[in-house]
């Protein structure tokens, strides 16, 4: 669609309105194949039209408006599913129980003893244990991070845990 000066104009509001009237239901059907509830499908299709309306100057060929809308519906449906999956993962984690004041004090003393014991370890043992158990890395990731072999990670980890066990037994 060219303007009087030969420049290419974007999709017009009238064309977008006609596209809405003609293709709303089919886009809703597309969303329904990707999502499982009607409200989410309607939200996705409405959001798709809002986004295309905002970007209508970039959709230079009015014939491509429907394709652009379809792609937007698919992308928004993917995002909705990702958010839903993330929400389910967060909900599936049990909420921690509140510790009593006594438990909290005991845990704090134990943590202080552990930190003191960690400081007394050899540097490599401490690095391996911190990366392995506090940063939740695999042995291979620890080896790569520290630039040492996998066998060294296992040896430092084993010796470090043994040293911690001895130190923690002395405090109890």
Automatic annotation (TrEMBL):
GO biological process: DNA-templated transcription initiation
SUPFAM superfamilies (UniProt xref): Sigma2 domain of RNA polymerase sigma factors, Sigma3 and sigma4 domains of RNA polymerase sigma factors
CDD domains recorded: Sigma70_r4
Keyword set, alphabetical order: DNA-binding, Sigma factor, Transcription, Transcription regulation
Family matches, as Pfam families: Sigma70_r2 (PF04542), Sigma70_r4_2 (PF08281)
Domain annotation RNA polymerase sigma-70 region: ranges: 20-84
A GO molecular function held by the record: DNA binding
Keyword DNA-binding: yes
Residue stretches making up the RNA polymerase sigma factor 70 region 4 type domain: 112-164
The keyword Nucleotide-binding is assigned to this record: no
NCBIfam families referenced in this protein's UniProt entry, alphabetically: SigE-fam_strep, sigma70-ECF
Similarity section: Belongs to the sigma-70 factor family. ECF subfamily.
The protein, known as: RNA polymerase ECF-subfamily sigma factor
Source organism of this protein record: Streptomyces collinus (strain DSM 40733 / Tue 365)
Organism classification: Bacteria, Bacillati, Actinomycetota, Actinomycetes, Kitasatosporales
